[in-house]
Specification:
The chain has strands spanning about 10-15, 20-30, 35, 40-45, 55-60, 65, 70, 80, 80-85, 90-95. With about 100 residues, it is an all-beta fold. It has a domain at about 10-75: Roll (SH3 type barrels). A hairpin with a 4-residue loop joins strand 2 and strand 3 (about 35). The two termini are about 15 Å apart.
Length: about 100
């Protein structure tokens, strides 16, 4: 099945402590059913010092369930994603709210 949420999509969080926040997907993990969204679901992690990286407590994004995020439509509201076959036979993603291609 084709992915409804892909890397580079602008998404909004539907549930949880970050509800209502938006960000860009920079990694999708389809086998886990999770995605990493820039600036959302931040957690503190203790980082050991390495040759190239400084040690200390750092903030980084934790994975978030795909069911808890939705693609943002042109008007800034959450929309579901559908699929449509074009005349030339290619499959494209379509926003259910507005009908526009994503």
């Amino acid at each position: 099945m084709a992915a409804k949420i892909r890397k580079g999509d602008k998404v909004i969080v539907l549930t949880g402590r970050d509800k209502g926040r938006t960000g860009e997907v920079f990694e999708v993990r389809p086998t886990e059913g999770k995605a990493l969204v820039r600036g959302v679901n931040l957690v503190k992690r203790h980082q050991k010092q390495t040759q190239n990286q400084e040690g200390g407590i750092i903030s980084k994004e934790a994975p978030i369930q795909l069911s808890n995020i939705a693609v943002v439509d042109k008007d800034g509201k959450a929309t579901r994603v559908g699929f449509k076959i074009q005349a030339d036979g290619t499959k494209v993603r379509v926003a259910k709210r507005s009908g526009a291609e994503i």
